[in-house]
Amino acid sequence: MIAKRLLLAVSAVALASASALAQSPALTGLDAWKAVVGNTIVGKTPTGEALVEYFAANGVAKNRIAGKPGEGEWSLRGAKVCTDYADDDEEEGGDGKEDEDSSDDEEADCYSLSVQGDALTLTDEAGKAREFKILPGNAEKL
Fold it and tell me: What is the pTM (predicted TM-score) of this model?
């Protein structure tokens, strides 16, 4: 009888702890970014290709999309994270050279972010949200 009560009490505590964790508010802005920087995210591009992306603490961003590596920079702008990859410029019809009068704002893609546990949601400026999983460190050795 004592063992049954103890098991019931342990189960209740575990359930209450899991419920509290599940209901904890999502981190946003800088607090969310602190959970991402130095780590890797995995998910899909807007076109459905496999995406792995690592955000180094020094502002370097590295990714691999459908097996192809890329390198760029990340920056914080208010509560948003912005990324700028050199290969994005080439894909948009550029010649891969930076224009002297171009600003970072024109080149970078910016996202609001939300983190809950190991789940990251990035929302672009058009309001389209994408889900990613956060892996610790440079998990894919990018």
Answer: 0.71
